[in-house]
Amino acid sequence: MSIHLLEGEIPSIQRTADYAIVAITKHGVELARKLQNQFSHADLYYMGKFKRGDEEARNIQLFDGSVRLLFPALFPAYKGLVIIISLGAVIRMIAPLLKDKKADPGVVVIDDKGEHVISVLSGHLGGANELTLEVAAAIGARPVITTASDVQKTIAVDLFGRRFGWQWESKSEDKLTPVSAAVVNEEKIAVVQESGERNWWLHPSAMPPYIHVFNGIAEAFLAKPNAALVVTHRILQPDETSILDNGVLYRPKVLVIGMGCNRGTASEEIESVIRETLAQLQFSIHSVKALCTIDLKQDEAGLLEVCQKYGWEMVCYSADQLNEVSIEDPSETVFKYTGAYAVSEPAAKLYSGNKQLIVNKKKSGNVTISVGMIHYQ
Predict the structure, then answer these.
(1) Does residue 253 contact residue 289 with C-beta atoms inside 8 Å?
(2) DSSP β-bridge partners for residue 121
(3) Domain residues of the chain, as ranges?
(4) I need a labelling partner for 161 at 20 to 30 A (CA). Which of 64, 127, 203, 276 fits?
(5) What is the spatial distance between Cα 288 and Cα 312, in angstroms, rounded to a whole number?
(6) Which CATH number fits domain 2-144: 3.30.465.10, 3.40.640.10, 3.40.50.11220, 3.90.830.10?
(7) Cα separation of the two ends of the chain
(8) Could you tell me which residues are beta bridge partners of residue 2?
(9) Cα 299 to Cα 258: distance, rounded to the nearest angstrom
(10) Which residues face 106 on adjacent strands?
(11) What's the pLDDT tens digit per position in 303-324?
């Protein structure tokens, strides 16, 4: 989508997320694209002259004209804005749009080199302070928050794990507000983490005593929390779902699909095998991080279409790389056609960094699938 900005007109935008990232320079665009990869729930806007060709696939909106004319559309549409423009320029552009701290979105500014992330507007009610911390952690920058005693050193429920690519389940969205209220009011909070990155606590101070971390849901039930943040790749069982009566379910990106397929295999068959396999494992498809295969398949249309549909990274390894991995059932037939003794199994092991897979190798029609998991300490 291309937006033509004209004086006196509020542009039409396509909002698909809660946050927007805006960039207007070459370096800013590079930084913005990197940030969007980690903030999956963010729309990206940058100038049309920096077009790469993949904007439609990545839901990136291009614009031509003064960026100042874009903000009247962005301000009422998003919870937060991440702007890679100089601080002074941003202040001048947003000043005419300000209403009050209850209505204004959180605004965060990043310098063009990505060294500092500054909380500019609506630090508390608008969530800019927490957004600043999350963005800074995602790009390795220094957060700048100028409020003092008011800064709550706790968890921002709607941003939790965002820099790692965690996604909350859509059915949890109506729980974001009550769970956030429980956190802000310092009620008893359970963080149940069965998988995913462990370094999610952003503050230099210790975690407050009202937040308790558990390895499993059964353990959390015994603590009788007022609210829960559940991080897992599993499909919850019927006797576990009540933890979400006042809870939010997050899907960490920990599953790795290793895959081999015959040339020309349709995306529908590939997707069906993946979905069927994950359903049998009782795993969520939203926790898949990457699909891995041999470099001979880097142009395989079916694989590319599935990865594009789900936003997965597609990683291709050479035959030599695959042959360096210890496997259980090497195939001379596979070697004859690919130069590798197996594809799906070693590919999943290489990406996950795990010698043991959840599904070692399963053949289904034109597809061979393996499933691995990334373990974080």
Answers:
(1) yes
(2) 107
(3) 2-144, 157-251, 255-373
(4) 276
(5) 7
(6) 3.40.50.11220
(7) 41
(8) 62
(9) 16
(10) 80
(11) 999 999 998 999 999 999 999 9
Give Cβ neighbours of residue 186 (< 8 Å, ≥ 6 apart). Answer: 208, 210
CATH 3.40.50.2300 for the 157-251 domain, yes or no: no
- Written as six digits, the tokens of 99 are 């209403």
Residues (pLDDT < 70) of the chain are 1, 123-126, 147-152
Residue type (1 letter), 59: N
Token pair for 14: 């396509």
Helices then strands, counting H and E runs in the chain, come out as 11, 18
CA nearest 282: which of 310, 224, 240, 333?
240
**Global model pTM greater than 0.90:** no
* Number of alpha carbons in the 13 Å side-chain half-sphere of residue 181: 5
In the sheet that holds 2-4, the strands lie side by side as 2-4, 60-64, 42-47, 19-23, 80-84, 106-110, 116-121, 142-144
Cβ atoms within 10 Å of 345's Cβ, excluding its own: 26
Helix (H, G, I), strand (E, B) or coil at 196: coil
Give me the sheet containing 255-261, strands edge to edge: 313-317, 288-294, 255-261, 367-373, 359-364
Measured distance CA(78)–CA(116) in Å, rounded: 22
Tens of pLDDT along 26-79? 999 999 999 988 887 789 999 989 998 888 878 899 999 999 999 999 998 998
